[in-house]
Each structure stands twice: as C-alpha cells, then as structure tokens.
Amino acid sequence: MLKKINGSFRDYKNQVYDFDNIIIRRIKEEKKKDYLDILNSKFYYENKKNIIETRIADENITQLFPNYKNDLFLTHKKFEFISYPIEWPFFLYKKCSLFHLDLHIEALKHNYNIIDSSPYNVQFAKGLKPTFIDFGSIVFYEENQPWQGYKQFCEQFLGPLLIENYSKINFQKILNFNLEGIDISTTSRILPKRSYFNLKILLNIHLHSFLIKKIDSKSKKKSKKQLLKKNNFIHLLESIKKLITNLNPNIDSYWKNYETKDSYNLIGEDEKKTILINFIRENKIQKLIDLGCNEGIFSEIALNNGCEYVLGIDSDYASLQKSCLRAETKSLNFLPLYMDLTEPTPNLGFNNLERDSFLSRSKIFDGVIAFALIHHLFLSKNIPLKKIVDFFMTLSPKGIIEFVPPEDPQFIELIKNKSIKNHDYNEKSFEFFLNKKTKIIKKIKLKNSFRILYIYEK
Predict the structure, then answer these.
(1) pLDDT tens for residues 169-208?
(2) How far, rounded to the nearest angstrom, does the alpha carbon of residue 293 sit from its chain's CA centroid?
(3) How many angstroms separate the CA atoms of 382 and 163, rounded?
(4) Could you tell me which CATH number the domain at 258-457 has?
(5) What is the pTM of this model?
(6) CA distance 304 to 298
(7) Cα separation of 122 and 15, whole Å?
(8) Would you state the torsion angle of the CA atoms of residues 426, 430, 431, 436, taken in this order, to the nearest 10 degrees?
(9) What is the largest CA-CA distance in the chain?
(10) How many Å apart are CA 32 and CA 14, to the nearest integer?
(11) How far apart are CA 124 and CA 103, in angstroms?
C-alpha cells in the first residue's frame, strides 16, 4: 500500500512515500537534473556511508505515480525504527550535531550545501552510526549566500546541548515535544553569566538573540543576513564544531550506581539472563523492546542470541549514557532512548500529523522485556497495576515481565514515607490482569528472591 509520509509536506519539491517497506522520494521535474547530478557526484560517492542508501527507482515504482511521469523517483532503505531528537540522550544528540556539521563541511568542500539544519534529518544505524536521511535538502552551493539553516541549527542543535552542559538542566524537559527546538532567546536567558565569556557562545547565542530581538522590535526593518564566502562558511562550521566537541552531559542520577552498588539487585541476574536467552531463541524474537533498559546488559544478551534489533527505553540519564557507550563500542544494533513511559512521545507537529507517536512507531516489535520496572511505575508514578499491564500489552504479543512484590526490599525502600491505602498491588491481582489480556506461558520464581518472572503470549 502506497502511503504518503506526513512529515514531508513542508517541501513540495520533495515528497516522500512508504511502499512495502521501501521509502520512495518524488522530486519535481524542475529539480530532476540537479538531483541526478548529486547522485552521480564525487561528494555522494565519498559520503555514501553517511547518507541514506539512495537509488533511482525501477519502473514498477514509477508506475505507481501515473500523473507524475516526468518527475524523478528515488528509493531509500527503510530504517527499522524512526527515533526523534526529543527521545535522544545527550550522547546521541551531541553525536548527531557533530555528524551534521562534518557532513555539511564535506558538502561545501565539494560545492554543495545542506539547506536544512534539523536533527530530524538524521537516524542511527547499527553501532549508533548516524545516517543523513534528507537527500532532498542537499543542493548546489552558491557563492556569497547566507547560512540558511543557521538559526535553526542554533535552536535545534546547539542550544539544547549548551543548556545541559552549562545549566545542568536536561534539555528534553525544555524541548517538551517542540519540533522547532528551543528558541535562541530562551537559551540565552537560561545560560549562566559565565557563558558570556566564551566568545563562540557570545556570538552564536547571546549576540544572536539580541539581534533577533532588535529586528523583531522594528517590524518594518528587514533582517540583513550575513553573506558568507565558502571558506568563511566552513570556518564558522568548524568553530561551532569545536564548541560542541567540548560539551558534556549532566550525568547526575539517583540510579547511576544501581547495578554496581546494590548487591540485592544482582541476585537472580544470571537466572534472568538464562531465561531471556531461552525466550529469544524459542520464540525467534527478531525485534525486542527493552523497557527500563538501564545499562543495556539484557539488550546485549538478546542481540547475542538471535535478536536482530533492540530498542532500549529508560528515563535515567546516567544509565542511558552507559547504554550508548555499550552500543557504540560493541557495534550493537541497539538504540537506547530517553523516555518517561508515563508520558510516551505523542503525535507531533502541524495538526498532530507530522511525527508519529511512540506507540504507533512501536508496532514493529515481536518481543518486550520489563525487568524490575513495574514497582517503579506503581510507586513513583502512581500508575494502577491494571493500567501498567494494559500498557505493556500494547507493545508486543510476547514478553517477559518481572513482578516485584511488596515483600521485596526494593519495594519496601521505595514505599517509605508514602501513604498507599487499599491498593491492588499483589501477585494475585497481577496474574488476574495479565490473564485477561494474555495466557501465561511460564511463571518462574527467582532463587533467593521474592521476585517472579512471567513469560506471556497473546
């Protein structure tokens, strides 16, 4: 079935479609020659590993568009899962920023330009390798032109990273599902006074914000964009790259030593690993979602035992940093994302149609694991047990859920100073809610522990 991808509507010259797991790009006739030249250029050849796989469409594809016979049709490889910048931990956001700058510099050196500076144009492949997916935003370079995506880069790339580095505020909390990033004036107000002493921040954020306000306050006065010679353009990109290279994340976290210091949490870990391996192999799980992935240990085990792709979800920044390092250094097909599961990413953009919700994007998974997670959602987020079970069931037809009963030391620790009366959080209730949605294949009580693993199947 041919389906138009809603997020491509803003550029009428480049429309994107999904057809039987192939991405089709339709380029208007007047731009056809330009993009054929780009596809055959030295720039594209030397950067193929960084740009989404692109080919001229076969006749069976072009026949799907009888009213656009003179347009150019290209096909792209489809990613297993499309993630959004608001879901990326600092590690991925910084990696994407540096990648975008490097690719832009390479484009300029070959007399091409990248006119869009959106992180949504990058996705991550195996080993957290960034890949540029917006082939349509590559154009021929024209001398003495302004950087069209400069403000966009500062708002969507640079600003969020600076905020977390200098103010120790996690940028996801401020992005708040905003496709346009964080406006420069907000970033300028958030950054501490000492940031004014950094010349690059002064020019790209604080002075930039001042000039925007000055133009806005005089509506009749048009903005005079700075024209750049190519060498100066490259120098500007390299300067911003040096600034971003030295930025570091806020890694303060209550749970950052959870795996290494809490000996009780390690009880039953080997048993869980064995159960997970058997689950992956017996059910031939190909795409797994790891809820509360922590440092990615179980995700790695799944990948080493037959799983093709794992998406990790966690709301702990320090754990995600470690997960990202694990995925990159071991070249795992594992993507760790930041998300509060009580507020999964909704539909975003104009008319709520430009970007799909996390739940709609998550229909691809055939397995889910949730180790040591339920009690956190129940106690820390006040989510009723029934709703937690119902939520898990929307993610995959098969899975493993670890139930942490009220007798568990971690449950007792979390419930301190909390007043929870007449709650239904117990083993009997959990089994009742689970049985209403699935059949329980196995119930395994972990040795030397109060915890129970449930393997279910719809």
Answers:
(1) 889 888 877 889 999 999 999 999 999 999 999 999 999 9
(2) 15
(3) 30
(4) 3.40.50.150
(5) 0.92
(6) 10
(7) 17
(8) 150
(9) 74
(10) 10
(11) 15
